[in-house]
Amino acid sequence: MSMMAHRSLRQTNPVARNGFTLLELLVVVVIAGITLGVVSLNAFRSDQQVLQNDAQRIALLLQLTREEAILRNRPTAFEADANSYRFLVREENGWQALTQDDMLRQRDFKRTPVQLSMNPPPTEAAAPNTLRITFGREPVDKPFALTMASGDSSVVIRADGVGHFSVE
Questions:
Q1: More confident site: 13 or 103
Q2: Cis peptide bond upstream of 120, omega within 30
Q3: Minimal CA–CA distance to 105: which of 130, 82, 85, 80?
Q4: More confident site: 130 or 14
Q5: How confident is the model at residue 54 (pLDDT cuts 50, 70, 90)?
Q6: Domain limits of the chain?
Q7: Which of 17, 61, 84, 157 could form a disulfide with 146 if both were Cys (CB 3.0 to 4.6 A apart)?
């Protein structure tokens, strides 16, 4: 009787299911597409995001450089060209790179070239195609806006003159 019941069940469902339906395959393809889209958005950051990250790092390092000038009781400077930026300290024989400080070491911009401009313009002259921002020993400096541009993207770092730097 058991064999007979099994045989009758088989006859009532003549279509055996051996594969996926078109709808199931379509759902899998859509899920894979969404996943790939999310991964590619995170893997390939836009120029604006890269420039924003560089600006945030520079804003923090500018604050540190300003504090170094006050602590060392010597002027320090941020110097940048289209490809990289570095930090300097004023010694008796001129400006020297801060090589012993890992935080203030020379770094390259993530995407180059970067156009830099400052408002108001820096008062101290630097090498051609180089921008230099100097911090003195005084706790109050002149406010400024440093604009970084790469391609169609731009970011502004604003300094209020008392040690606060913000990225816009």
A1: 103
A2: yes
A3: 85
A4: 130
A5: very high
A6: 50-167
A7: 157
